[in-house]
Amino acid sequence: MTAFAADEGSLTRFYVVQNSPERRERLTKFYQDYLGQLKSISFNNLSAGGRADYILFKRDLENRLFLLSQEGKEYNAVQKFVSYGDPIYELEKLRRRGTHLESPKVAATLSDLRTTVNQKIVALIQEPNLTPALAARASDIVAAHQGALRSVFEFYHGYDPDFTWWVKKPLQELDSTLAKYSRLLKNKIDKTVLPKDDGSGIIGSPIGREELLRLLKYELIPYSPEELIEIANKEFAWCDAELLKASKEMGFGNDWKKAQEKVKQTYVPAGHQPEAMLKLYDESVAFLKEKDLITIPPLAEETWRMLMLSPKAQLVSPFFLGGEVLRISYPTDDMSHEDKMMSFRGNNPHFARAVVHHELIAGHHLQGFMNNRNKVYRNFRTPFWTEGWALYWEFVLWDMNFPRSPEDKVGMLFWRMHRCARIIFSLNYHLDKWTPQQCIDFLVDRVGHERANAEGEVRRSFTTNYGPLYQLAYMTGAFQFYALKKELVDSGKMTYKQYHDAVMRENSMPVEMVRVILTDQKVKEDFKTSWRFYDK
Fold first, then answer.
1. Each residue of 157-200: pLDDT tens digit?
2. Distance separating alpha carbons of residues 239 and 415, to the nearest angstrom
């Protein structure tokens, strides 16, 4: 696995032109070769950790081959739009080894290519519209041609006077033409299959049930989208009951929204949020140490730090983010009054107290710290481990009475309801049942989000680089870690600290494989996910 990561890095740095046939063919052979090496290993003689690595490594190789196959099918489907590109690929191949180019011939080739691309631009009007996937692929291929030409130009320009004199102008003209062509291809879409703007201004791309099932299988989650929504609704019912208890304790009876509103009004003044967060961090770490729940390396405590999120960043991250750097959302002077108040209210101390440990210790900061120091050859990054582990701590600390007051409980329940809501709204969206506006309204009405914060959450979910399963991974992964805790800790086989330290020593991977390792399961080479971990 260590050799694979190094080899893959070498190849992807060498074959840099994305979507090129050369790159695709070389990587396909590379992944097939490593699959062949895996087959030569005696699976049954491996340790539990080795068996887990084998299964996941094989899974990832097969997934890479699947994605390259999809790329190849889409390339072939749009080949008539991009077939002019072979001379560009050849120039980049020559450049890699520093071949001296015959600059007049290169200039003539580029000039001819510009004519060809202009002809394709004219002909594009008569072509039928493409699916969004094919339009994106064609546009990306053209953009990769531009990247290859830039690579050639930057290598020779200024170093070879003959090249600069002959090639500079025709290359610039071709680059401009390709940029126009790439934009046209990107927009050459059958608009009837595109999601409509429902008034939210958020345009994503629902992936559908079949792709959801494929991704769930990849992540070793043996539940259907519908089953996961059902689980989230059951957990929502638990949150409702607990929230009503807290509301009554605060004197608001069954009107939990009034209780939540009082909690939102506890925000600290502008300029004082960082010190408030430090106080909450100190409280949470003191609690972990008092209960002897996990080993906390002194260097991990020493080296985390804070940054403030910009107003622009807060449009997609309305709450703070964590890791080695705690990124804090709070109002700035150039926000509108309405946005300032929403940011104040949504980041009040009781809400924040529920998740400081999620973002720092024993959540994301400790995860990253330990991943960099334990079994670093494991490259099985998954949000079910990353976000699931961080949310699992919210479950455990609730059980251990970390919330000191009904206001603290309202804060913790806000986030727990939010995690339930993430499963429900993200899956309904990708099943093409809900629009972004319905998702926003659900977060406002059912969880109690400030509307701007709800919009930020939905925008983050559907228009950034988060995967389709990312939002449901929080609570789903937490249930996996919680079920494993019951199996190992509640049964008396391990202490909390032994369990938590053992997880941190294994690095990131699907949680079912953590279970395979910690319980020393004798799994088979053709392993299929089957762990029904949810227990209400």
1. 999 999 999 999 999 999 999 999 999 999 999 887 777 788 89
2. 10
pLDDT tens string 282-325? 999 999 999 999 999 999 999 999 999 998 888 878 888 899 99
Contact call for residues 309 and 453 (beta carbons, < 8 A): no
AA letter at 145: H
Helices (H), 78-131: 79-82, 86-96, 103-124
Q: Which pair of structure tokens corresponds to residue 326?
A: 């705690």
In the chain, what are the domain boundaries? 2-77, 79-193, 210-518
The total number of residues shown for the chain amounts to: 536
How far apart are the C-alpha atoms of 33 and 4, rounded to whole Å? 10
For domain 79-193, the CATH architecture is Up-down Bundle (1.20)
Please, are residues 386 and 446 in contact by the beta-carbon 8 Å criterion?
A: no
CA distances from 21 to 82, 153, 260 (A): 12, 22, 57
Q: How far apart are CA 303 and CA 74, in angstroms?
A: 46
- The average pLDDT across 90-117 equals 97
Residue 409 to residue 174: CA distance in whole angstroms:
62
pTM of the model: 0.93
